[in-house]
Amino acid sequence: MKLHSTVDRVTERIRERSRDSRAAYLGLIDQMTQRQRGADRMGCANVAHAFAGMPTGDRFKVVAERVPNLGIVTAYNDMLSAHAPYAGYPDIIKHEARSLGATAQVAGGTPAMCDGVTQGTPGMELSLFSRDTIAMGAAIALSHDVFDGALMLGICDKIVPGLLIGALHFGHLPTVFVPAGPMTSGLSNKDKAKVREQAAQGLVGRKELMEAEQKAYHAQGTCTFYGTANSNQMLLEAMGLHVPSAAFVTPGTALREQLTREAVRTLMGILPQRRFAPIGRIVDERCIVNAMAALLATGGSTNHLIHWVAVARSAGIHIDWDDFATLSEVVPLLSRVYPNGSADVNAFQAAGGTGFVIRELLDAGLMHEDVLTVREGGLREQTRVPVEGEGGFSWQETGASGDLSVCRPATEPFSPIGGLKLLRGNLGRAVIKVSAVPDDRHVIEAPARVFDSQEQLQKAFSAGEMEQDMVCVVRWQGPRANGMPELHKLTPPLAVLQGKGFRVALVTDGRMSGASGNVPAAIHVSPEALAGGPLAKVRDGDLVRLDANAGTLEVLVPAAEWDGRENATMPPALTVESGRGMGRELFAGMRRNATTAEEGACTWL
Ligand SMILES: O=C(O)[C@H](O)[C@@H](O)[C@H](O)[C@H](O)COP(=O)(O)O
Ligand code: SF4
Asked: Using one digit for the tens of pLDDT, what is the confidence trace for 113-154?
């Protein structure tokens, strides 16, 4: 199918804007590629230290026989249900590598934060910058520089973006990402949200709420809503950095282990001595556009409008929210997974999953097909599905949708446009996930109520002060102010108000979770209030209009008055300097150095 002209145009303008930085990036990759392999290039002491911890047989192989040595970067810990399965992965990988005549080492571990654990708590103010900390952790691991390829073990929110940013700073290395799969379905996300709203109104107590939450989150594996973690998986498949359709296979199954071993076989196939495919060449402008298309087609997490800007930047590629907005005009919505619908990611997988979405987008000319990936067959390979069989698995072509309420073909999409939209106006630039908002709530015009923290809003709600149409402006939530936390805990109170018929919206320079959804929220407002952004001028009672159809976000105050207003200042008690603890002070340097949300909130530039 011929590539859609808009996809072609956006790719071209990204290529044009990135020409110099991409050329410099590829130049570095070429330099690194031309070096001898680590065990031959480095000093004897360096090499001896590098392999002293290996079993003797492996040590001999990697130094004397010069067999490939694979580096494992793992974000394993027990705090993320999604990452807990990784505990046993290094041994499986080493076993498979040996069987293929290679060796493997855990090059290093990285931190990994569970946003579900920290949601609504002080720890969430470390979350965004844990991404770049993870990238630095990956760099520290790979800087041992004795690897012929890398396997990245990470799934959740900031971890995949962080591992990708880190890996792309070692763009000369062939790299495969290794997923661990979603937990089996428990209490549905919709039923969980209902109990939360009852609790927010005092209709059920902590005991009932705890029961519901533990029925929802009940096993190892990724949470089953289509939030940032599962959006990460969809994008890695669309970028051709995974074994095909490996994303959503349940942990602990025979097929899961087979797919982990297949990841090692896949990496062996793209080493310098084979079909050389270093990650820095796989992740080119077309690959990034393919990821953007997959995000829009699935109504993925709004967090990717920040993270993928940083990921692209790490490969010398510059993208912005206008690129997403232009693609969103032609990329249809092909899946409805909570919060964009009631199905969960297991139902998505059963209905066709990542392979179905990629096949539909390729056939509609909405993705680049002629791209380099970790697999011989290019991106079309990602439309195949592994089916368990005698002693292993076989590959099948993805078929028609198994459930049209979950996955739709591009010929009859849920919506002709993607799930994310850009908003512009005198309050700055912002984004909104429209795919999860009821149609009659895409335009909200109401008086503003200004909050300096999410706690202030929750207090006002509990005091019954919010029973009216209202645009809640929550400011001082940007990267430089307090690390741009997710304000997902505001979803239940706002959903209660919306359920009572009030016309409510959230406008913030903060983030929402990928699991947030049914209340209209203009988020990532840039420039942020602390950087002199317009949110610092909004006052209680100002009329604010959020129009997701027109793509506007405005305060309806006479220009002369608006221009004449002084910016409010961030309350000192909310600043890191006030000594708020929980390690937030350690990230002060990253806050000071962070670029805007639209520039990826990068802290290393
Ligand atoms: O971006 C995301 O997808 C979220 O950060 C997600 O990872 C987070 O854990 C949610 O908070 C979970 O949802 P609940 O908080 O509703 O359980
Ligand atoms: S999806 Fe979110 S809540 Fe679930 S394990 Fe990952 S980070 Fe934690």
From this structure: 999 999 989 999 999 999 999 999 999 999 999 999 999 999
Mean pLDDT, residues 165-178 taken together: 98
Percent of the chain residues topping a pLDDT of 70: 100
The atom of ligand 1 lying closest to the CA of 117 is 9
Mean pLDDT (the chain) is 96
Give me the CATH number covering residue 502. Answer: 3.50.30.80
C-beta separation of 176 from 375 below 8 A? no
Q: Is the ipTM of this complex over 0.95?
A: yes
Show the beta-strand stretches assigned E in 37-183: 69-74, 103-109, 149-153, 175-177
pLDDT of residue 517: 80
Contacts of 398 (CB under 8 A, 6+ apart): 245, 352, 353, 355, 356, 359, 383, 384, 385
Mutation probe of ligand 1 site: the residue of 80, 81, 113, 115 with most atoms within 8 A of C-beta: 115
Give the residue from 328, 299, 249 showing the smallest Cα distance to 7.
328
377, amino acid identity? G
| Range(s) of the domain holding residue 110 | 5-34+67-184+219-397
Q: Is 170 found in the same domain as 113?
A: yes
Q: Is residue 214 part of a domain?
A: no
The finding on whether 223 has its CB within 6 A of some atom of ligand 2 is: yes
Same domain, 378 and 424: no
Ligand 1 site, CB within 6 A: 115-116, 119, 157, 223, 227-229, 301, 303, 486, 488, 513-515
* Within-domain flag for 433: yes
Residues 255, 322, single domain; the answer is yes
> Is residue 165 lining ligand 2, measured as CB closer than 6 Å?
no
For a substitution probing ligand 2, which of 79, 81, 217, 489 has the most ligand atoms within 8 Å of its CB? 81
How many domains is the chain built from?
2
Annotated binding site for [4Fe-4S] cluster: 156, 223
CA 337 – CA 335 distance, rounded (Å): 6
Contact present, 518 and 433 (Cβ < 8 Å): no
345 pocket-lining for ligand 2 (C-beta < 6 Å): no
Q: Is the CB of 320 under 6 A from ligand 2?
A: no
97: amino acid identity, one letter: A
Same domain, 79 and 28: yes
* Closest CA to ligand 2's atom 7: 114
Same domain flag for 472 and 375: no
Task: Pick the residue whose CA is nearest to atom 6 on ligand 2.
Answer: 156
Q: What confidence category does residue 578 fall into, taking pLDDT thresholds of 50, 70 and 90?
A: confident
* Interval 464-502: pLDDT, tens: 999 999 999 999 999 999 999 999 999 999 999 999 999
